[in-house]
Amino acid sequence: MGYGHLDRPAQFLKGVGPKRADALKKLAVGTARDLLYHTPRRYDDASTIHAIDALQVGQDATIRGRVRSSGVLPTRSGLKIFQVVLQDESGMITCAWPGQPWLDRKIREGDQLLVTGPVKFFHGRQLHPREHTLLARAGKAGDGDEGEGGRVYTAYPGTDELPQWVLRRIYDANLDWLLAHAHEEEYLPSPWRERLELAELPEAFRRLHRPAHIHEPEEGRRRLAFDELFFLQLVQALARHRETRLEPGIVHTRTNELIRVLHQRLPFRLTDAQARVLREVSADMTSPARMNRFVQGDVGAGKTMVAVFAMLLAVEGGHQAALMAPTELLAEQHAGKLKVLLEPLGVDVALLTGRVKGRDRDELLTRLAGGDLPVVVGTHALIQDGVDFRRLGLVVVDEQHRFGVRQRMALVERGDGGPRPDMLVMSATPIPRSLALTLYGDLDLSILDEMPPGRTPVKTLLRYPSQRDEVYEGVERELEAGRQGYLVYPLVEETERSHMRAAVQEFERLSREVFPHRRLALLHGQLPADEKEAVMRRFRDGEVDLVVATTVIEVGIDVPNATVMIIEHAERFGLSQLHQLRGRVGRGGGQSWCILISEPGEAAAERLKVFASTTDGFRIARADLEIRGQGDLFGAQQHGRDPFLRFADLTVDEELVSAARRLAREIVERDPELAGPEHARIREVLEARHAERFRMWKVG
Predict the structure, then answer these.
(1) Contact yes or no for 323/425 (Cβ under 8 A)
(2) CA-to-CA distance for 205 and 44, rounded, in angstroms?
(3) pLDDT tens across 91-118, in order?
(4) What is the Cα–Cα distance from 685 to 187, expressed in whole angstroms?
(5) How far is the C-alpha of 144 from the C-alpha of 693, rounded, in Å?
(6) CB-based burial of residue 473 (10 Å sphere; 0-12 exposed, 13-18 middle, 19+ buried)?
(7) Could you count the other beta carbons within 10 Å of the beta carbon of residue 80?
């Protein structure tokens, strides 16, 4: 089945031509297909349109009418107001746009407008449009000139060169033809569509571009959102199949000689969530397929214990285990914890970082290659040349978002030429389940959503800049009691453009004026890595009272003695980032505080209240997704005009993500090459529409 018709260049569509085709390219519309996928950004339902003569002052209304007259009114204060008189069948009203005189060039007498906004009293009734849509130019037939009661008006994303009325005329001229050929896009057989309760593609496009009712566009969006998610999950399912199914995995054997002993010695009970995740890990490791599992949990949810039991399972069967952390300090911290837990069981733990040199390093590498060193913890030093394992059975990657896929895979390749080791990746950055399934579709997901008992929650307080001295007094009380703290700023250095306080200047001011008798240290991302590590080491060892920092401390080390965290200009941080920062304190037994200093402002105050009201990282991540949108969360994966997801909305589409993932995995398990005739169409669409992702899958 060819792609033929919809590949037609946009310039050959009715009413387009070369000049408008160039303007359409700025909207990422180059072909007939692109025009079909360029969907409206807003819908106005004619059933909610008010008659002009019935408008009341104080009401928020949508009206439709012809422009009878227009002009710009100057005021004494110098403000220019653009005004039009709008008329429908029932009467006339003035519409005023204060401060927008340039609209005089856009809106003409005789144009048909749809406007929405509050009705005010000013020399009679006036409507102040919040938004307006040009339905038709003067003298041209427009959308529903005559009483189309149930009409839904569409407003497309446009540009100055392509205003609404031009885009509407292009769609009016071409939509029947586009919809007639939209079946070429269909790849889902009808039994699958019925099972998933999704519209056929031509019908989905009709609901988006020419809805009969205001609820229809959402049904069309769901179908396109599913397609987007499905092909994303399909590429990941193919990658997962190659990673975990094509090559034989290690079938680990559990003897319980180490696991049972550790379990009995633990001074606490594992949480139900830890027990559940351990069952999932154990099932993976004892099966013939390779494990590729992603464990995410909040700070303090007990991921390390999950890793410890997984490592012991590998060691019980005669294999080695390696844990890779993003910084030397984190690696040291993990190694310290593992030694306390494992060495009493007779399991040696070694630390390999850039600081291990000379004879110590040679001896460690010899033991590792000889197989008599069961557990090693390290940084990316683990993937350098000369590091070889005898029987590497499990790789644990901590704070996995700090590593590229290549670094993760390089450690897996360190094996002895036998089956590749199982992989467990961990993150203490909670992200909503829908986002985790989308970003890490090639991994199996485990969530630690329960906190161990006995942790004292960090108290979060909101303060204004005028209360800063009071905040400093609180910090001083903590330092007097022998505790330590952090002061965090959004910028490294002050700039002329910004009025915000910054770490470098504040470090000098605080050292001189506020805490001259305390030991302060400065920490930010522009410092060399060894300097950053040195500062955190001194802080960990109690040689520094206060760290003045930027967000480089987000993923940091445990300093149980740190009990206070001050965050300046808190409104400048995302909620998830604030949560990561707050996770730096509250690691000891006593009470800890996180104090947010922020200018008064409604929007910021609402967000910060949400943050202060809960310590549940998953709730915060969901709120962050709703407030900031998914673009910010995809971060570097967004580039150019091709956003990661155009139709899918991860705040509402979690079920669609799961359904897309299930279908993709089902198809790949059955036909990993997509070679069967029933999957030919899927393969075509994958290669044609998702060529870049498909290529990435092929090369890994």
Answers:
(1) no
(2) 18
(3) 999 999 998 898 998 899 999 998 989 9
(4) 8
(5) 43
(6) exposed
(7) 15
CB contact at 8 A, 348 and 315:
no
Tell me the backbone φ, ψ of residue 232, rounded to 5 degrees: -65, -45
d(CA 171, CA 209): 8
Beta-carbon contacts of 247 under 8 Å, excluding residues fewer than 6 positions away, are 290, 419, 420
β-bridge mates for residue 491, sequence order: 502
d(CA 36, CA 221): 13
Token pair belonging to 336: 């310290």
Helices (H) and strands (E) in the chain, counts: 23, 21
For 464-501, what is each residue's pLDDT tens digit? 999 999 999 999 999 999 999 999 998 887 776 677 78
Rounded Cα–Cα distance for residues 137 and 507 (Å): 61
DSSP state of 684: H
Contact 301, 273 (CB under 8 A): yes
Tokens of 142: 């427009």
Length of the chain: 700
> In whole angstroms, how far apart are CA 109 and each of 68, 70, 86, 379?
6, 7, 10, 70
With beta carbons less than 8 A apart as the criterion, state whether 436 and 294 touch: yes
Contact criterion met (CB below 8 Å) for 57 and 125: yes
d(Cα 398, Cα 307) in Å, to the nearest integer? 9
SS3 324: strand
Q: Which domains does the chain have, with CATH numbers?
A: 4-41+175-213 (no CATH), 45-155 (2.40.50.140), 221-455+652-700 (3.40.50.300), 459-614 (3.40.50.300)
The whole-angstrom separation of Cα 309 and Cα 282 is 9
Say if CB 618 and CB 560 are below 8 A apart: no
- Give the C-alpha distances (Å, rounded to integers) separating 473 from 470, 515, 593, 595: 5, 10, 13, 13
Q: Supply the DSSP string of 439-462, one letter for each residue.
A: HTTTSEEEEE--PPTTPPPPEEEE
Q: Which of 546, 523, 549 is nearest to 534 (CA)?
A: 523
Residue 609 one-letter amino acid: K
List, in sequence order, every residue forming a beta bridge with 272; answer none if it has no partner.
Answer: none
Question: Considering only CA atoms, which of 229, 178, 166, 168 is closest in space to residue 206?
Answer: 178
Say which range, 26-35, 501-510, 594-603, has the weakest mean pLDDT.
Answer: 594-603
Calpha distance 666→192 (Å, rounded): 12
For residue 232, give both structure tokens.
């994303």
Banded model confidence at residue 352, pLDDT cuts 50, 70, 90: very high
Residue identified by tokens 């179908």 is 223
Name the token pair of 330: 């984190």
Task: Provide the greatest CA pair distance for the chain.
Answer: 94
In 128-189, which residue ranges form alpha helices assigned H by DSSP?
Answer: 164-181
